[in-house]
Amino acid sequence: MTFDWQYIVDVLPHYKTALWLTLKLATIGIAFAIIVGMICSIIQYFKVKVLSQIVQVYLEVARNTPLLIQLFFLYYGLPKIGITLSGELCGIIGLTFLGGSYMAEAFRAGMEAVTKSQIETGKAIGLSNLQLMRYVIIPQAFSYSVPGFGANCIFLLKETSVFSGIAILELTNTTKNLMGIFYKTNEALLMLVVGYLIILLPLTLFLTWLERRVRHAEFGN
Amino acid sequence: MSGQIPILKVKGLTKKYGEKIVLNGIDLEVEKGKVIAILGPSGCGKSTFLRCLNGLEEVQGGDILLDNESLINKSTKWREVRQRIGMVFQSYDLFPNLTVMENILLSPLKVQKRNRSEVEAQALELLERVGLADRANDYPRQLSGGQKQRIAIVRALCINPEIMLFDEVTASLDPEMVREVLDVIAQLAEQGMTMLIVTHEMNFAKLVADEVIFMDKGNIHEQAPAEQFFTNPQTERAQQFLNILQF
Ligand SMILES: Nc1ncnc2c1ncn2[C@@H]1O[C@H](COP(=O)(O)OP(=O)(O)OP(=O)(O)O)[C@@H](O)[C@H]1O
Ligand SMILES: [Mg+2]
């Protein structure tokens, strides 16, 4: 296999732009997904009336439909009822919608791992439910959830490749376009892989570090 | 008994899990400054009884009066009651995400909204008393079981409760650490803290308790001054119980 290195240099700016876009959309989407996930899991944890049923439906729908279909709905479906959103916004909403349900699951598992005796101790010293949540349950649940969170972040980052389906020029779509125009398949795919690695390797290393740190820091009880 | 008004009165307290009766009409009066040891075989309802006293269990009948005010009604603010009735558990659950000092300050600062420097001073004094002043900034994982349990006691004391409930606080400790925890409780007894203590440490109960209640199958089977209970138990069940423990 030979590579046309000059070609790679020529298209580098395209990949740089695409990489930044991928990173930007993923970061925003994941951040919102974490917020949505936390809210949902707290609603589930306290079995809040009505809301917890709504959340349940959301979780089922979000986890049992492909992201591409969710994006199609946002990008092609919504305009039919007069709501037109930019591709990037659709991408962020889609990623939040899908990711929120995964994050909710990770965080719920974390909350359920907080022992009953921790909660009773909190009550016995007079904490309110909200204070229990803030000082006892959430910090501990967060530590328990870090591995799940990490896996979800990586999953969601890779899921951004589906954005190519709604004409967002992220890494995968950029590669597809360049291949279509120049037929330099090897070069384009090499750059695609390198692009994802540039994002995912540091992220994976960071998450491994975080996991170890959190595990070390807690639970000597 | 002396003419003192009891600080805590329990009348006909009944607790069921489904059909199963766990507490079958408990009556008890606790005078201020008294130390009561609660003894009895496993499963007789000792923990459940203590848990009812600070609202961790819902009760199905009877009444609990704290300073003559009933706690068994809808308007009871258990969060306020729990500041007056402290409880320490067998599992010494310090919050692993907080340092020793943060564990102790949490309730005084966030629940009682007291002044930080005042509470810190009190916390340090209490830590001093249990011999752990130098561990204030450690995390629980850095402490031994006995140290954690002493901190858990300090955390409860720093809320300034009027009554303390201890549920087998030495049961999960290595033998060499039991002593350091019991010493702290004995100290409290000397200072006049009102306490209900569930324990299997008979020597300790004999030493610090004014009164013993012996429970069996959800009832108070025998109630007597400590000295009398240990030297001359009146009921056969209590005699058996003490024999089994070779006491
Ligand atoms: N959540 C529960 N649901 C059903 N039964 C329970 C529950 N908690 C306790 N019990 C039962 O209530 C009874 C009293 O339990 P409790 O924990 O108060 O006993 P105990 O005297 O503290 O025993 P031990 O010395 O072993 O701690 C036991 O028979 C126990 O099985
Ligand atoms: Mg018990």
TrEMBL record, chain A:
Transmembrane parts of this sequence: 20-45, 83-104, 188-210
- The principal localisation class reads membrane
Kindly state one GO CC term assigned in the UniProt record: ATP-binding cassette (ABC) transporter complex
Query: Which domain of life does the protein's organism represent?
Result: Bacteria
Kindly indicate where the leader peptide sits in this chain.
none
Localization, UniProt: Cell membrane
Keyword Transport part of the UniProt annotation: yes
Q: Which GO terms describe its biological process?
A: amino acid transport
Asked whether the keyword Transmembrane helix is assigned, the reply is yes
Sections of the chain in a coiled coil: none
Q: Which GO terms describe its molecular function?
A: transmembrane transporter activity
Q: Topology relative to the membrane, per the entry?
A: Multi-pass membrane protein
Protein keywords = Amino-acid transport, Cell membrane, Membrane, Transmembrane, Transmembrane helix, Transport
Looking at the record, the residues that make up the ABC transmembrane type-1 domain are 19-209
Family, similarity comment: Belongs to the binding-protein-dependent transport system permease family. HisMQ subfamily.
Q: By its UniProt entry, which NCBIfam families does this protein fall under?
A: HEQRo_perm_3TM
This one is known as Amino acid ABC transporter permease
**Protein source organism:** Ureibacillus endophyticus
From TrEMBL, chain B:
Q: Which UniProt keywords apply?
A: ATP-binding, Nucleotide-binding, Transport
Molecular functions (GO terms) = ABC-type amino acid transporter activity; ATP binding; ATP hydrolysis activity
Question: Where in the sequence is the signal peptide annotated?
Answer: none
ABC transporter domain boundaries:
8-242
* Top-rank lineage group of the source organism: Bacteria
One short Pfam family name for this protein?
A: ABC_tran
Q: Which SMART domains match?
A: AAA
Read off the Gene3D superfamilies from this record.
Answer: P-loop containing nucleotide triphosphate hydrolases (3.40.50.300)
Under the heading InterPro entries, the entry gives: AAA+_ATPase (IPR003593), ABC_ATPase_HisP-typ (IPR030679), ABC_transporter-like_ATP-bd (IPR003439), ABC_transporter-like_CS (IPR017871), MetN_ABC_transporter-like (IPR050086), P-loop_NTPase (IPR027417)
Q: Which family does it belong to?
A: Belongs to the ABC transporter superfamily.
Q: Could you tell me what this protein is called?
A: Amino acid ABC transporter ATP-binding protein
> What species is this protein from?
Ureibacillus endophyticus
